[in-house]
Structure prediction request, 387 residues.
Amino acid sequence: MSVNLEKQNFNGRMVSLRIGVDLGGNDVKLGATDLSAQKKLLPELVKKPSLTQDGPQRTIGQIVDGIKEVLAQLSVDWSEVATIAVTVPCPCTHDGHILNVPNLGTPETKHLWEVPFGELLAAEVSKIAAGEIPVFACNDANAAGQDEDFERFGNSNQPRTSVFITTGTGLGGCVISDGGVFFGLGQAGELGHTKISVPAPYADRFASDPFPQCGCGAKGCVEARASLSGLIRRLGWALGDEGKAFIQRDLEKHDKHIDAEIFSTLSQLYEQSTKKAAYNVRTFADERQDAFCRWLLDDWAIMLGALFASVAPVLHPDLFIIGGGMTEMSVSARDWFISVVRESYAQINQQSCFDSQPGNCEIDWSVSRDQGWRGAILMGMRAHQIQ
Ligand SMILES: [Zn+2]
Prediction:
């Protein structure tokens, strides 16, 4: 594929494109844009195993190989690369120093990852490219939120505040103010670790699980309920006698019941793999509109509504945006899920100035589909660390 790209002089180099890299625990995905980041240059992202279990150097090799593949597809040389920006699934500083690593490596190799990843990658790139190419590294949820803002508002200077969350294995997020990620002293926007007590209208359903333990060590973080790990813990209870009886009683109030076949399938799956069983909860809730599975995911939606209701008086945002795994559900399942989030928000928030409606604390799905690789490019451009 040959593309016609406009070249510009960046610090004495004639460059034409930017590379974005999305580093995950299992794979690394790479894309490219023109210098304005408006135009995506590849029909499909380049994807490779990230090999993070062995530490960052091995992964850097995979990223470099991925960049070579991007350049080969576009028939351009390393010398034309203006910047490389990479997202990492870890909290990190503005300059890409990884602070801790919940999602990379193995228990034995995690410590290898607490490094200035951007600097290491830049050093490797400069050897291969025979010259300096600025590298920017950032947290993946921040990058996803940045891209979300760009999809909705472009490069507009219009004043705006959005709260973006990405919900899946954990609950990440960021706050975007007037088009830029808000960092505070560095780690602002870690919304999953907001401590939220169970909202009064939902006290009964959570009575058996009042202080869930979060992966960060604290109790009561919203992530401990609104995440895959929260669902796994809850499913263990729901498949037992006490949980099953409680949910059955609650469903009967709405003329619904537990489907014996689905319940039995989930019980068997849970014995084999708790994670697999939890994934199937989402599948049954979506494809079969199963009442038991939807009841379990209601927990997740209720707590997102509670999170938004707690954040609204602090930030009074235009928008709350839900990204991550739930966006992959069918349209009708997404309609059901977001209606529970909105209902929970409305039940908990009683101040009319924070009523959720278009343009005021509106709750909506992500439209950018977590294009963190391009979000990283945009964050790098904004930070002026790379030009
Ligand atoms: Zn936590």
Observations:
- The chain is about 40% helix and 15% strand.
- The two ends are 26 Å apart (CA to CA).
- Residues 193, 214, 216, 218, 221, 223 surround zinc ion (CB under 6 Å).
- The CA atoms of residues 196 and 222 lie 6 Å apart.
